[in-house]
């Protein structure tokens, strides 16, 4: 199969290979990785045709473009030899076409005159068409890969542009700064689009977000053609709380308005107030008949319980009959807020997977975000279920902690051994306070307390050292005067 060079973005490195493979799976294309390094933007793959290359790259968020590889080498001498050997038979096809020739350097570069010399060195291709920087018939690029602070490139590639990705346009279009309705927890638009790709979103599929907030994930899925709906425990978030003064907006802004903003309102089925333990959605019984699912995919960013403890619908204590009647009389009233009770974070993760097993079709995907940390003491075990296959784990690192994007595939009935659904009950965190029910939340704040204590101790030692120096200096001055 022909070799292609994928020019990747230097962002979210642990996601890039996973996204390319997911897009190949969605397109039904066979993709083989020949060369991939996380610290390099140049990835070499095998694909059957230019058509297959376009199917993958025209949805990619972490790639910039894909090129048919016409040559490679460690020096320009070996590069030219490779170009003559691999692509000589293709030159007549572009003999009279308008063309663009560019040189790109990673961790290094060339002056304008040096770039002209490099371009002239390919004159043996005998291109007779007109050079055109905008919208040429064909575009060629030389890629120079440097070691850091090196004067000469360590490796060279030469390729013909097949297709560019929609990365920059998608980031501009769905930028949260331009979105009419967001909240403080709205997920970055680039990550929502990336999650949708990894979850195998495609036209005609049905996707659901049980923690939709202001609708970031459903919007990304609808952009790629899926039919979407969602839910949230806080109905006020779905209904909207008004516009943003900094953009001069007036009137009511809500999730429906976000879909209308991007012209994808027809893909939005709606939303409802619920949590996974009290969902009105049909949940098939836990039997070995695993073909009763109806969702093609689930994408979500569950609450981590850091700002406030995790909660589900229900009362902390048993209600009196008069209290129950009060809720029954008021639950349909506008602005009614149902009571909530504390919830275990570990139970939340397991409930999400159990819900996915019951509602996903065979080979359906669930992609969910989960917090972890850079400290082993705060590490959380990746949840598992015998009916789900963990297909990828991608990590987004922050300063004191990280989070993972976990993607699971719903196994087919033939892949699940009989009796695996009859699993033993698990023991979860117990208590009535948020930190008692969320080990990550407790250790997260403990870590910051330790950091603040170390910071205060460092300041105290620094102040004591400065005071000692001043005291010594004063004593020396007195001794000199005497």
From TrEMBL:
EC assignment: 2.1.1.214
SUPFAM superfamilies given in the database record: S-adenosyl-L-methionine-dependent methyltransferases (SSF53335)
Organism this protein belongs to: Decorospora gaudefroyi
Alphabetically ordered keywords of this record: Cytoplasm, Methyltransferase, RNA-binding, S-adenosyl-L-methionine, Transferase, tRNA processing, tRNA-binding
Protein name (database record): tRNA (guanine(10)-N(2))-methyltransferase
Lineage: Eukaryota, Fungi, Dikarya, Ascomycota, Pezizomycotina
One Pfam family recorded for the sequence: Tmrp11_N
Protein's GO biological process: methylation; tRNA processing
Stretches assigned to the Ribosomal RNA large subunit methyltransferase K/L-like methyltransferase domain: 178-309
InterPro entries tied to this protein: DNA_methylase_N6_adenine_CS (IPR002052), RlmKL-like_Mtase (IPR000241), SAM-dependent_MTases_sf (IPR029063), TRMT11 (IPR016691), TRMT11_N (IPR059073)
Chief location bin: cytoplasm
Residue stretches making up the tRNA (guanine(10)-N(2))-methyltransferase TRMT11 N-terminal domain: 3-167
Family stated for the protein in its record: Belongs to the class I-like SAM-binding methyltransferase superfamily. TRM11 methyltransferase family.
Top-level taxon of origin: Eukaryota
GO cellular component: cytoplasm; tRNA methyltransferase complex
GO molecular-function terms, A-Z: tRNA (guanine(10)-N2)-methyltransferase activity; tRNA binding
Enzyme class: transferase
């Amino acid at each position: 199969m022909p070799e292609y060079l994928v020019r990747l973005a230097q962002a979210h490195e642990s996601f890039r290979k996973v996204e390319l493979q997911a897009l190949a799976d969605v397109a039904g294309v066979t993709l083989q990785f020949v060369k991939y390094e996380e610290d390099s933007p140049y990835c070499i793959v095998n694909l059957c045709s230019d058509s297959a290359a376009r199917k993958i790259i025209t949805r990619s968020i972490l790639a910039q473009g894909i090129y048919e590889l016409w040559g490679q080498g460690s020096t320009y001498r070996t590069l030219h030899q490779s170009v003559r050997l691999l692509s000589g038979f293709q030159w007549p096809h572009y003999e009279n076409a308008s063309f663009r020739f560019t040189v790109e350097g990673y961790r290094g570069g060339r002056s304008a005159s040096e770039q002209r010399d490099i371009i002239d060195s390919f004159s043996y291709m005998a291109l007779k068409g007109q050079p055109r920087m905008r919208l040429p018939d064909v575009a060629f690029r030389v890629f120079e890969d440097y070691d850091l602070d090196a004067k000469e490139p360590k490796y060279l590639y030469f390729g013909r542009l097949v297709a560019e990705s929609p990365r920059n346009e998608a980031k501009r279009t769905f930028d949260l700064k331009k979105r009419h309705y967001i909240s403080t927890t709205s997920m970055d638009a680039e990550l929502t689009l990336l999650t949708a790709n990894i979850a195998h979103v495609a036209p005609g599929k049905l996707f659901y977000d049980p923690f939709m907030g202001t609708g970031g994930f459903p919007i990304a899925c609808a952009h790629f053609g899926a039919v979407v709906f969602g839910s949230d425990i806080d109905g006020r978030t779905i209904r909207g709380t008004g516009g943003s003064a900094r953009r001069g907006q007036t009137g009511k802004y809500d999730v429906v308005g976000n879909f209308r903003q991007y012209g994808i309102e027809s893909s939005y089925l709606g939303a409802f107030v619920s949590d996974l333990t009290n969902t009105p959605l049909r949940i098939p019984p836990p039997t070995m008949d695993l073909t009763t699912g109806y969702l093609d995919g689930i994408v979500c960013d569950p609450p981590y319980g850091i700002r406030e403890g995790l909660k589900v619908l229900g009362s902390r204590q048993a209600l009196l009959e008069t209290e129950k009647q009060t809720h029954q009389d008021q639950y349909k009233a506008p602005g009614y807020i149902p009571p909530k009770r504390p919830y275990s974070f570990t139970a939340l993760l397991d409930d999400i997977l159990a819900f996915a097993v019951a509602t996903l079709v065979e080979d359906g995907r669930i992609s969910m975000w989960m917090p972890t940390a850079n400290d082993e003491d705060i590490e959380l075990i990746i949840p598992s279920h015998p009916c789900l296959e963990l297909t990828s784990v991608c990590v987004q690192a922050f300063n004191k902690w990280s989070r993972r994007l976990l993607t699971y595939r719903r196994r087919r009935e033939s892949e699940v051994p009989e009796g695996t659904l009859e699993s033993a009950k698990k023991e979860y965190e117990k208590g009535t306070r948020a930190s008692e029910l969320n080990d990550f939340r407790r250790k997260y704040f403990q870590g910051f307390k330790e950091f603040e204590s170390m910071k205060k101790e460092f300041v105290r030692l620094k102040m004591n050292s400065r005071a000692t120096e001043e005291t010594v200096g004063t004593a020396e001055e007195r001794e000199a005067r005497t």
